[in-house]
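Lecture 7 notes: from sequence to structure.

We start with a single chain of 132 residues. Read the sequence below before looking at the structure.
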Amino acid sequence: MKPHRLRGIASEKAFEAQYYELIDDEKYSLVLPTLDTGWDFMIASTGIKIQVKRHSPCDKKYNPFILDLRRKRNNGTGNYTGTEFDYLAIHDTDAGEFIITHVSNLMKGGKMKQSVGIRSLKNEGFKILCGV
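Now the structure, written as tokens:
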């Protein structure tokens, strides 16, 4: 497994740990997909689907706070359409926090953007996911 994939798994685990610290009812447990269908977690009682992405700023980029939203794995599945998940959880490793944003904030003209500036996104926080 390549290092970037391992770091992605670490971000998924960090999201899961932080999420479970906030909930107080088992009905909000996270469900994992059996196949990679474009989301990483689903909230059992609500069906809300969450995709986790890791963002680490790169000094070589013109704007180090741009997140590439294009799919890199599963050749042939194409880019995200905006129907695969409800919320995107971005692990901002520079700030040490998660940015939780609704998929509608990633759309332009009915299509999913291919990249987005993470610092300009509305952060709805974990509370929007766990009913707190």
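The chain has two helices and nine strands. Keep this in mind for problem set 3.
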